[in-house]
Amino acid sequence: MSSIWQSGALPRLLAHVIARLPPRFQKGKMPYAFLFVMLVIGVLLFYTGITPYLESRVLYVAMAAFLAMLVVLVNRGLPLHWAVHMGTAAGTLMLTYAIWRTGGIFSPRCAWLLILPLTPFYTVSRRAGLFWLLAILSTYAILGLASALQWVPAFELDHIHAFSSYVTFSMVTAVLIIVPMIYDRMHVAALRKSRAYQEELERKRQELEHTLQMREHFIATVSHELRTPMNAILGFNALLLSRAQDKPEALKVLNHTRQSADHLMTVINDILDYSQLQTGSLVVQSEAFDLRELVTHAFDLFLPKVRSMSLDYRIDLDPALPQWVHSDRHRIMQVLVNLLGNALKFTHQGSVVLRVQWQNPGVLVSVQDTGIGIPAEQQAHIFRRFAQADSEIQARYGGNGLGLAISQRLVELLGGEIGFESAAGQGSRFWFQLPLQADKAPARRTDAGAEQPPLQTRTRPWRLLVADDHPVNRLLVKHVLQNSWPHAQILEATDGQQCLDMLALGPVDLVLMDMVMPVLDGIQATRRIRAEAAWQHIPVLGLTANVNPVDLQEFRKAGLNEVLLKPFDPAHLCHRVEHLLLAKGGEA
Predict the structure, then answer these.
(1) What is the spatial distance between Cα 191 and Cα 198, in angstroms, rounded to a whole number?
(2) I need a surface site. Which of 75, 411, 485, 540 has the fewest CB within 10 A?
(3) Where are the beta strands (DSSP E) in 374-452?
(4) Do residues 400 and 271 make contact, with C-beta atoms less than 8 angstroms apart?
(5) Helix 30-50, helix 9-19: angle, nearest 10
(6) Cβ contacts of residue 285 below 8 Å, gap of 6+?
(7) Is 342 helix (H, G, I), strand (E, B) or coil?
(8) What is the spatial distance between Cα 452 and Cα 260, in angstroms, rounded to a whole number?
(9) Which of 361, 518, 330 is nearest to 434 (CA)?
C-alpha cells in the first residue's frame, strides 16, 4: 500500500475521483468522508450477500440506505458533523443488534465496533472521537454483562459462520489500516496546502513591504523635487515683496502668488505628513512656546483672506490661559490652520469663531462656523483620508481630503482627542483637546515667524560658501545673503566634493550645505569637514528639502551646527547665519 502511495498512482486516482464529486464534497474533509461512507455502503452490500442470517440482510440494506440518505442530506446542506454523529449512532445500534444475535461478546462482529470512533475522530474532532470511543467501550461492557448472564440467544457455529467471521476480521483489519492511512494523507495534503498558503502569504507580505518602502521612497523623492522649486518660488517672491512695497499693483500680484504658493506647500506637506503618520516615522518634537501667540498667529494668517469676505471672523481667548506651555508647537499650528482653513472654505456668510479654553490642566480649542454643515449620513467618514462629505463638495470647494485625517492623527500623536458637531445647513463646530500643562519661559527664542532684530554684522566682509546642486537655489541664497551682507563674498559649489575643493583654496567663514547632491552628498561632505582639523571650527548650516526624519538625523550627526528646511524664511535664514558667525567669534 505504501509503494502505491509513493508511486503516486493512488493519489492521482483519488484526485480524479474527487474532481468528479458534487461541488459540496470537493472541499476540506468532505471528499474523504464521502469516500469512507461509500466504502462502508459497499461493505454492507457485500455482507448482504454472504451473511448466513436472513434478518441481517434487511438490516444491512436498511443501514446502507440510511447512509445514502445522509449523503444526499449533506449535499443539500446538512452539516457534516451532524451527519457523522447520526451515522455513527445508527451503526452502533445496528452492530449491537447483530452482535447480540450472533453470540454477544463472543461474536466476531464486535470487531466492527472498533472502527466506529475513527470517522468522528478524523472528520469532526478529537473530542467527538473520544466520546464515541467511550460509547463503544460502554457497549462492550453491556454486551459482556448480557453474555455472562446468558441473556444472549443461543447460537450454533458451522462452516458458513467460519467464513463470515474470516471475512469480518479480514475486512476490519483492512479498514483499520486503510482509514488512518487515508486520513493521514489528507492531513499531509492539508499541511502541504497550508504551508504553500503560508509561503504565498509571506511572499505577499514581502511584496507589500517592498511596495511600502518604494512608496515612501517615491513620496520622499517627489516631496524633495517639489519642495526644491517651491523654495525658489517662495524665496524670490519674498525678495520681490520686500522691493515692491511702494508699488500697489505689483504688491497685489505678488501677494496672490504667495497665497497660491502657500496653498501648494500645504498640499505637499499634507501628503508627506500623512505618509509619515502611516509609517509611524513622524515624531513629536516638544518645546516651550507661547500658547496665546501661537493661536493668534494661526488666526492672523487668514485675515487677508477674510478682509474680502462678509464674515464675522473673531478669536476668543480664555483669560486663564497660561502664557507658556510645552508641546509640539508646529503640529498644533498645523491642526489650527487645517480647522480654520476648512471653516473659512465652507462658510460664505455669518461667522467663524476660534475659541481657546483652559481646563487646568489641558486646553480645549474649538472652531465654530455657520457654514454649509455636514449631513448626518456623511459624518461617519469625515476623518477618513481622501474623503470629503460628497463628490459635489469636492468639485465645488476643492481640497485633497487629507486635512482632517492628518489633524486627527496629529492630535492623537500629541495625546489628545478630536471631534465635531454639525448639521446640514447649520454650520459645524470642530474641537480638539490636548493635555497641555503650564511651563516656564524658555531661555531664548528662535521662532522663524517672530520679529527678528536688525543684523549686527551687515558691514562685515564675510566669505560664505553655498553648496547646492540646484542653480536656482544657489542664486536665491546668494541674493538673500548679498542683500543682508553687501560686502560679503558669496562662493558657490555644485556638489560636496567641489565644496571641499573650495575650502582647500582659502578660508571660509560659514558653509550653507545642501543634503542631496551628486558626486558627494552633504552628509559625507560635512563629515569630511569635521574630520579636518583646519576646518572643524567652520560653522555648517544645513539647507535641505529632504524632510525624512531618518535622513535629517543622519545629516545632523554628520556635524551640522543647525539645519533649516526648504522653503526657508529669508529673514530667519540670515539671522541664523549671523548667530552662527557670532558664535564662532567672528565679531572680534
Answers:
(1) 10
(2) 75
(3) 417-422, 428-434
(4) yes
(5) 100
(6) 328, 330
(7) helix
(8) 25
(9) 361
Residues 101 and 95: their CA atoms lie apart, in Å, by 10
Q: Amino acid identity of 403?
A: G
Residue that the C-alpha cell 471653516 belongs to:
343
C-alpha cell at 429: 463646530
Taking the model in full, what pTM does it have? 0.50
Q: What percent helix, strand, coil does the chain show, rounded to 5?
A: 60, 10, 30
Cα separation, 140 vs 146, whole angstroms: 10
| 285 three-state secondary structure | coil
CA distance 115 to 121: 10
Cα–Cα–Cα angle for 548, 554, 560, nearest 5°? Answer: 110
CA distance readout (Å), 86 to 93, 123, 193, 226: 11, 13, 30, 71
Do residues 324 and 288 touch, judged by C-beta distance below 8 A?
Answer: yes
Question: How are beta strands 463-467 and 510-513 bridged, if at all?
Answer: parallel
SS3 254: helix
3-state class of 533 per DSSP?
Answer: coil
- How far apart, in whole angstroms, are the C-alpha atoms of residue 522 and residue 347? 46
Q: What is the pLDDT of residues 503-545, one digit of tens each?
A: 999 899 999 999 989 999 999 999 999 999 889 999 999 998 8
